[in-house]
Amino acid sequence: MILGDLGAEVIKVERPGAGDDTRAWGPPFVGDESAYFLSVNRNKKLAAVSDVLVENFLPGKLDEMGLGYGDVSRTNPNLVYCSISGYGQTGPLSQSPGYDSIASAVSGMMHITGPQGGEPVRPGVAMTDLATGLYTHGAIMAALLQRQRTGRGGHIDCNLLSSQVACLTHVASNYLNVGLEARRWGTAHQSIVPYQGFQTKDGYLVVAAGNDKQFVRVCQVLGLDELAVKPKYRSNTLRVQHRAELIHTLSQRFVEQNTCDWLSRFEGSGVPVGPINSIQQVFNQPQVQLCASAALRPASQRPLL
């Protein structure tokens, strides 16, 4: 879809008859198509040929049909051939089918997602699928640039597991460098305090004090100036050590006023804050509506990337 947004003609080949499984992933439906299918098939057409081939068969299946990379590249050495699978083209799991939720579990993503002390939680949208799509988009663009220089295409191997493991970022680094096993933190951050959601009188908001100066400003906005000068809260390392007590104090203060009141008080403070919006609230935001209107303009009228 991203390549289509950038001007590519995207051609999709589906199974004869029923077609893509996601066509039936409903309700809700829009006519005969599921809303889910429509959300992940923007810009796609059913047609004949293209410079880039993207396939998501189990590894080896297209080779059996004479349509593997080795076969196709002999016919068209300029082709950028991209394979997307659950676990990659080789290895002990390569023949296993991959869905977002399975890869999210196997990769550790579910292990770190959910409330403190609670059960693992699947992210609300298919983040593993989305991350893999973004990595794939970048890899295809890089392969096209390489083709300009060399005159040859190539075979790209993208998979759900590798994409999601790559997205573990600092969680993976903590384990690989110091052996620190991760756990679930809800909306909080393992290494930064305060950096989480708080309940207000009528909803929730998230406060992200990423440095000591921002923590002082949080205290000032909340009218809790005494917290900023307490020795045990003077640095982020100390605030992490005394997390429970500090978060309890802040939580008691946040629940005293409405979300909009707190947002107004934080405005201009330099502290990153935001409400936890419902989906209706998301699409009623002027900022989101502005971004959406820009995306709907003809390509010639959009801002340069």
Helix content: 40-55%
User: Which secondary-structure class do the elements indicate?
Assistant: alpha/beta
SSE pattern, N- to C-terminal: HEEEHEEHHEHHEHHEEHHHHHEHH
Q: Main sheet?
A: 3 strands, parallel
**Overall geometry:** elongated
List unreliable stretches of 5+ residues. Answer: none
Q: Termini separation (Å)? A: 16 Å
> Which strands sit side by side, in order, in the main sheet?
5-6-7
Based on CA atoms alone, the radius of gyration comes out at: 24 Å
Number of strands: 10
Q: Helix segment count? A: 15
Mean pLDDT: 90
> Roughly what fraction of the amino acids lie in strands?
5-15%
Notes on the structure:
A hairpin with a 4-residue loop joins β8 (195-199) and β9. With 305 residues, the chain is α/β, with parallel strands linked by helices. The two termini are 16 Å apart. It has 15 helices and ten strands. α6 (127-150) crosses α7 (160-166). It is elongated and about 75 Å long. The model has no long low-confidence stretch (mean pLDDT 90). The chain has a three-stranded parallel beta sheet. It has a three-stranded antiparallel beta sheet with strand order 8-9-10, covered by helices on one side. The protein has a two-stranded parallel ribbon with strand order 1-4. The chain has helices at 2-5, 35-39, 61-64, 69-75, 100-106, 127-150, 160-166, 169-178, 212-222, 225-228, 236-241, 243-254, 259-266, 279-284, 286-295, and strands spanning 10-11, 29-30, 33-34, 44-45, 52-55, 80-85, 154-159, 195-199, 204-208, 273-275.
